[in-house]
Every structure is written in structure tokens, then in C-alpha cells.
Amino acid sequence: MCDMIDSQSAEKISRMKKLRRTLSESFGRIALKKEDSSFDEICVTKMSTRNCQGMDSVIKPLDTIPEDKKIRVQRTQSSFDPFEKPANQVKRVHSENNACINFKTSSAGKESPKVRRHSSPSSPTSPKFGKADSYEKLEKLGEGSYATVYKGKSKVNGKLVALKVIRLQEEEGTPFTAIREASLLKGLKHANIVLLHDIIHTKETLTLVFEYVHTDLCQYMDKHPGGLHPENVKLFLFQLLRGLSYIHQRYILHRDLKPQNLLISDTGELKLADFGLARAKSVPSHTYSNEVVTLWYRPPDVLLGSTEYSTCLDMWGVGCIFVEMIQGVAAFPGMKDIQDQLERIFLVLGTPNEDTWPGVHSLPHFKPERFTQYSPKNLRQAWNKLSYVNHAEDLASKLLQCFPKNRLSAQAALSHEYFSDLPPRLWELTDMSSIFTVPNVRLQPETGESMRAFGKNNSYGKSVSNSKH
Asked: How far from the centroid of its chain's Cα atoms is residue 402's Cα?
């Protein structure tokens, strides 16, 4: 019997390896057409005759989606990444729906792939997009489990880029995370999502070429400890919600929101990056993964083993990042394990029960006897700087809800009163327009006492109506 099981296991592993090799070979033949206005050229990509697409549909309320069409999410290995961006512009739909929404699968129209070579007026040996020698590596920015990121420069037009070099192993083939990341990003186009310029596939590596963004929110907060200027927090949060609303409308979950994955440009533009764990429409499966999101930003439902989550997953991360920008320290910095992380959450929000969280007792890792019984607190008791900014505590409390269905959606959060002193034109921008194209919208100098001074002097209030509509 044991020999039979070993034989079956070996056969399964062999089949999986063959599948990965086949996918890798297919990926190597996919042809991507990249229209990029900032490069002013057509990027030639080495991908296959098959064209993976993102989704352009609008999210429907949970009760309108047939059960058999709700998406199932699978986990892949976490990746290190800075960088990514979009392709079909769809007008944002402003909804008052606060509920979190599950996804459904749907068929998206497929474009027939076309390949257009970059034409150069110079000699045939001139650098071209889509070629490994078209980019010069300048310095190493970081390294993750399967990729290394370099600062680079395009030999075609001299612009700075970020090169995410993914190592390919002969037996394993192209990592699924890389295939997923590239296919998702080529279908996204938004000012608050990092831009994918080019894809280069060789026998040894797959290189994703992104726009270069010089820092991330984690480094920005490290440079300005003690909490960011309240107006800057508001602008960063608004941009984060813009980007999330855009991908959520396309049935995409980011699944790894944390300050390191939010890039900040020198003008203050925030861009969602690292889509290695992101998930879009897929063949429905019977399992979800509860091993997503870095521990400090992982919601309690996922920590307790929930395998049925949706946009609510990302919205918990938004709440944690919001508090961290204002307070200057992580909201729930668990130091040991999942149990410790949950204790820190329950200490502030209260230990859940069936009254506050219907269905919590059915979650795999929820054992009431394992947790101290805490009563919920006002958030300002845990993070006093929330009280310095009008409506900040209310918004944070609506994002940091233990019961996932009570969390505010990205679209609804954009309409929260916390943003009421921003210029109304921000809600009228097209997807590819930066918020900094609106007059009077700019980052403020960071100062150590900016949070305390905010209540006395709000520069937006002087020149902008209090109503955004």
C-alpha cells in the first residue's frame, strides 16, 4: 500500500513539473503589444500566441452573483517587487455601497496579439525594446525569493527604469507569480498603479521592466518618523483608495498591501506595486488561501483560517496603513506568531463572538478559550493622533472591522467625510490623471509637530469648499 501511495505521489509531482514546464514554454511565446506614451514607442515583448487579459466589468453586489460564479483564490509564493501599471480605461463608478463585494468570473473579449517591432532610424544594431541589451543595470535595489530588482536605464530613450529580473529554473520553469503579475499588469492603466513598460524573456530569466519610482511609503515614513503631515496622509490615502477602487472593479485583489508595496514618486504620487500575489478571474476552485498578506497587515478573518474573502481583505490593510501614517508606528506589530497578532487586534477591537461577528465560531482557528476576553476601545485610546484630525477616527474604525462584511469598500471610503475638504475636481479625474494636476493639491513639508498643528491651520479650508460635490 505504501509503495502504491509513493508511486502515485511521484506520478503527481512529475505531472505538476510537466505542467509548469509547458506553461513556461507557452509564456515564452506570448506576444505582448505595449503602447506606452511615456516611451513614445511600441515595446516588443516575447510572450506567446496566447493573450492573457484583465477584466473590464463592473463589480456587482454580492447577492447578484450566482454562487457557482464566485471566484476562488489560490496562494502562490510571496514575491519581492517594487513596480507595475495599466490598459483599458474604464470610468470609475461612484457607489454608496459600503458592503464588501465578492467576485465572479466572466468572459472577457480577447484581442488578437499583434507584434510591432520598434523601428529605429539608425543602424540595425541599435537598441530596441523587448531586447535584453536594451537596458543598462545601474544598481541593485533589492532581492526577494525569486527575483532581484535593479535600477536601470533604457538605451533606447535614456529613461530610468526598474528591472525585475526573475530567475528561471530549468525544471520549475517560469514561476506562476511572474506569469500572473505580467498578465494582470498589461491589462491595467491607472495613475496610481505602477507602469509595466516591457517584458524580456530569455532562457535563464524573465525581466519585467517598470517605470522607475524612487522610494516607497515605508522608506518615506522612516525618513519622517512620528507620523506624517495630516494633509500628506490624506493625499496618500486618497490615491491608495483610487488605485484599489480601480482594480476591485476589475475583480482583482492585491492581497499584499503594505507600505513597502506602495511606491512614492518625487512629486508625491502613490502607486500600487508588487502584484505577485494579486488574483484576478480564474477557473473556480474549491479552496482559497489564508496565507496571504504580510502578518502585520493581515485581517483577523484570514488569521483565523477563513478561506472566503474578497475586497474586504485589502480594505483591512488600508486601515492598518492609514493608522500607521498618522501615528508613526504600525497598528498591530505582532512580534511572535498568528496568536500574538490576533491578541493585539482583539486588545483594541474587542474579542469577537457570534453577536459581533456572525459565524466566527465556525472559523478553523477560532477557539474562544485560547483568547483573552477584551472589550472594544475607542481607536483614539490606542492611537491618540487620530483625535487630531477631523473624521480620521471614524474612517479608521470603519476600515478596521473584525467582521469582514462590515468593512468599508474602497469606493465608499472615497466618499467619506474625512476627504470633504479636498477639491471637488479630484472625484472627476480620469483614470490616468494625477491628483496633482488639480490646483492647490500638493504635498506639504513634513515637520515633527505637523500633526498637532493641523487642527489650527488647514490650508485646504481657506480656498476650497467643504463639499466635494
From this structure: 21
